[in-house]
Amino acid sequence: MTKKKSKKKRRRGHYHRGTHESPIAGECKYRSGWEQKFMLYLDSNPEVESWTYEKIVIEYVSNVRSKKIRKYYPDFFVRYKDGKEEVIEVKQRRKLDQTIIIKKAKRQTIWCGTHGMTYRILTEIELKDMNII
Fold first, then answer.
1. pTM listed for this prediction
2. Which of 6-10, 87-91, 124-128 has the lowest mean pLDDT?
3. Fewer CB atoms inside 10 Å of the end CB: C or N, the chain?
4. What CATH number does residue 52 fall under?
5. What burial class does residue 35 get, using C-beta atoms within 10 Å of its C-beta: 0-12 exposed, 13-18 middle, 19+ buried?
6. How far apart are CA 125 and CA 133, in angstroms?
7. Rounded to whole angstroms, what are the CA distances from 110 to 91, 116, 118?
8. What's the structural domain count of the chain?
9. Do the domain assignments include residue 27?
10. Which has more confidence, 5 or 30?
11. Quick one: three-class SS letters along 100-133?
């Protein structure tokens, strides 16, 4: 008697995904509940003049030996009414030590510095402190 192998279902869509209709940024597709909640926060923040989701493209070297160039799309670009501009990435704290995240963050910091912007990574800790989650 042979046992029938059961196929393990691949888990798809385990992240909170959807579309947010923003009065400021228009239609934005998000890939996490934290991103969605941050979008709602940006829409309700009177200091925010405008914001976009994954509209900025930044190139970075993903492999030093092969010099492979990849593109990175940070989560948010925010322009405040006082003129300040900021690029924000929403990320789980446990992922911050991943090599790819470190490479992107280094490149992002340099890119923002040359463009007169600040760069921030918001984790669940900062989002809780801001009463977003």
1. 0.85
2. 6-10
3. N
4. 3.40.1350.10
5. buried
6. 9
7. 19, 10, 10
8. 1
9. no
10. 30
11. HHHHHHHHHHHHHHHCCCEEEEECHHHHHHCCCC
